[in-house]
């Protein structure tokens, strides 16, 4: 999809005295999404062209993949405010050129004052509007702690990495048509959730090419530039967050902010055929689900079934059903609850799970329960590869679009509504229809279960695939399908990302398909007994594939996503 600047923007630029030659050079005004790039040195693929360009410029200046990732992430917090953030959290999976693999957890935490039943009314009914919108929905943000934990692997000074984001916030950038549409859609909610005007609303409707200027966010980013992590978790920014909480009955305190820390965890690693997969462990469910699904198909010779035949889709649907049944039952923050991870991904357990699989016949979520174990729409993904051999895969989120819609007054950034990823009440679905139990119940300082699945695949020890996507519970299935498309069906990178996807998450017992899913296959699946439901786009998968030293980077067709490289 290409996107070009409109006359509104030209008018703005001439009004501040720029020549048209300058205009052509100014990438913040005149840009388009590039969906595919072939290159040899390094690449960045993200949800917004300006962020991908910021990251690529850092690579070209000699920065490594971590430098570029940090600059891209901070730029996304400005140019992609629906999901890019400093008020949310995320996960990084990385492969270092020396062979080391890293998983970094900077997921939000429940505030100290949070409690198990905080979203239940006096009759015990779940009040989902409180876990999904407004001040009380926000978990303690982890994004800035994550970025400073990423700095351990960076090579350039932080000041250089944050400056492009400051400039974009301070001077503004031209928004895309999709962004104008989204800001108009959320206008009322922004007005409702915020006492004072924010950068995200104006009197007349937003149009493609309008400038989004975020002066307060720029001031916050400058405090982070000058004071480091303390520029967010202490001092002026922290005071503004706590004041915002007090305005709207939120519960994040100074102590929550001061005690927040990101955590390096052991990446989840497993082999599939000749590939080595590195992905995110708990508190994301994503890595475990992908490992379970890959192992459940591994003996079934899916490659012979061919891409998106009814047989292949049915098999993948049934493994998705079984993996998601386990998600709700067993998974939660490993710092708080015991999770039988080894059993859940063991060959014997997964073989048993697939015992009742019947080719050609729809399974049932009433009959398929979680396994027996005897043991006590908004997120964003980006991928970076550098010329040194470092690979970085990051998914970061505010939860749904524009998170809690609460902008910290005076600090200009949006707070997440990640508390809804906890199980607010056993059996009550969250905004993605995911259900859970005590393992994912709210407790002070606990991290809510996630589906985010930043993933890297190595072939002969070298980066081969870097991928990930937003999409709530559809994230693990999108990553699974993208990997199967390449590693089993031999599909090219472009098709692996852009061909229609499908999704089953155990409950509800429906098979969701994208609108361009082939009708003939849909009919065959219905004849097998599946309740097939067309739905909006599934994920926005970013992908870098490395083949014989040649790099192919793909930005998903489903959004403004953009691939850059050199
Ligand atoms: O962590 C999670 O699983 C969710 N908060 C992710 C939300 C998401 O992907 C929304 N994107 N469309």
Q: What's the layout of helices and strands?
A:
Blueprint: H1 7-15, H2 20-25, E1 36-39, E2 43-46, H3 49-60, H4 65-79, E3 89-95, E4 101-106, H5 128-132, H6 143-150, H7 158-171, E5 173-174, H8 177-185, H9 187-193, E6 211-212, H10 215-227, H11 230-233, H12 235-247, H13 254-259, E7 263-265, E8 268-272, E9 275-279, H14 286-297, H15 302-305, H16 310-330, H17 341-344, H18 347-353, E10 379-385, E11 391-397, E12 455-459, E13 462-468, H19 474-487, H20 493-498, E14 502-503, E15 511-514, H21 519-528, E16 532-535, E17 542-547, E18 550-554, E19 562-565
Parallel strand pairs: 15-16
Antiparallel strand pairs: 1-18, 2-10, 2-19, 3-4, 3-11, 4-7, 5-6, 8-9, 9-12, 10-11, 12-13, 13-17, 14-15, 17-18
Helix pairs in contact: 3-4, 4-7, 7-10, 14-16, 14-19
6-diazenyl-5-OXO-L-norleucine binds at residues 377-379, 397, 399-400, 418, 421, 450-452, 470-472, 475.
């Amino acid at each position: 999809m290409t996107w070009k600047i409109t006359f509104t923007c030209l008018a703005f630029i001439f009004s501040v005295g720029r020549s048209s030659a300058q205009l052509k050079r100014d990438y913040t005004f005149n840009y388009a999404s590039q969906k595919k790039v072939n290159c040899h040195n390094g690449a960045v693929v993200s949800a917004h062209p300006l962020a991908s360009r910021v990251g690529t410029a850092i690579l070209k200046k000699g920065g490594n993949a971590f430098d570029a990732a940090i600059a891209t992430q901070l730029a996304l917090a400005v140019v992609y405010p629906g999901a890019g953030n400093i008020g949310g959290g995320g996960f990084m999976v990385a492969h270092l050129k020396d062979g080391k693999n890293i998983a970094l957890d900077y997921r939000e935490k429940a505030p100290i004052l949070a409690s198990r039943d905080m979203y239940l009314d006096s009759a015990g009914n779940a009040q989902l509007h409180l876990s999904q919108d407004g001040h009380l929905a926000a978990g303690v943000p982890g994004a800035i702690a994550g970025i400073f934990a990423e700095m351990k692997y960076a090579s350039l000074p932080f000041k250089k990495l944050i400056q492009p984001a400051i400039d974009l916030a301070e001077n503004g950038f031209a928004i895309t048509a999709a962004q104008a549409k989204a800001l108009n859609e959320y206008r009322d909610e922004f007005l409702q959730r915020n006492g004072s005007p924010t950068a995200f609303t104006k009197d007349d409707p937003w149009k493609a090419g309008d400038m989004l200027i975020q002066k307060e966010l720029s001031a916050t980013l400058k405090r982070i530039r000058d004071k480091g992590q303390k520029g967010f978790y202490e001092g002026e920014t922290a005071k503004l967050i706590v004041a915002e909480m007090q305005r709207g009955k939120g519960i994040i305190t100074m102590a929550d902010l001061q005690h927040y820390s990101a955590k390096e965890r052991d990446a989840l690693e497993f082999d599939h055929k000749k590939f080595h997969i590195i992905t995110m462990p708990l508190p994301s469910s994503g890595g475990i689900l992908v490992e379970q699904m890959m192992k459940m198909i591994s003996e079934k010779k899916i490659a012979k079934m061919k891409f998106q035949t009814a047989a292949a889709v049915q098999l993948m649907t049934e493994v998705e059903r079984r993996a998601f049944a386990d998600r709700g039952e067993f998974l939660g923050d490993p710092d708080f609850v015991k999770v039988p991870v080894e059993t859940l991904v063991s060959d014997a357990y997964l073989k048993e799970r697939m015992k009742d699989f019947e080719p050609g016949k729809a399974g049932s979520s009433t009959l398929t329960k979680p396994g027996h174990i005897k043991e006590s729409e908004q997120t964003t993904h980006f991928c970076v590869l550098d010329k040194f051999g470092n690979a970085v895969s990051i998914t970061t989120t505010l939860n749904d679009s524009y998170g809690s819609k609460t902008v910290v007054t005076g600090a200009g950034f949006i707070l997440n509504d990640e508390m809804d990823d906890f199980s607010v009440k056993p059996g009550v679905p969250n905004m993605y229809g995911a259900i859970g139990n005590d393992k994912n119940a709210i407790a002070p300082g606990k991290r809510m279960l996630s589906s985010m699945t930043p993933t890297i695949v190595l072939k002969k020890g070298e980066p081969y695939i870097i991928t990930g996507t937003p999409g709530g519970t559809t994230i693990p299935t999108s990553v699974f399908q993208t990997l199967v498309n390449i590693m089993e069906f031999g599909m090219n990178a472009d098709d692996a990302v852009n061909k229609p996807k499908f999704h089953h998450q155990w409950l509800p017992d429906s098979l969701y398909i994208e609108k361009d899913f082939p009708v003939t296959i849909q009919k065959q699946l219905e004849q097998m007994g599946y309740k097939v439901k067309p739905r909006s786009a599934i994920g926005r998968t970013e992908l870098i594939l490395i083949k014989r030293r040649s790099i192919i980077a793909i930005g998903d067709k489903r959004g403004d996503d953009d691939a850059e490289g050199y």
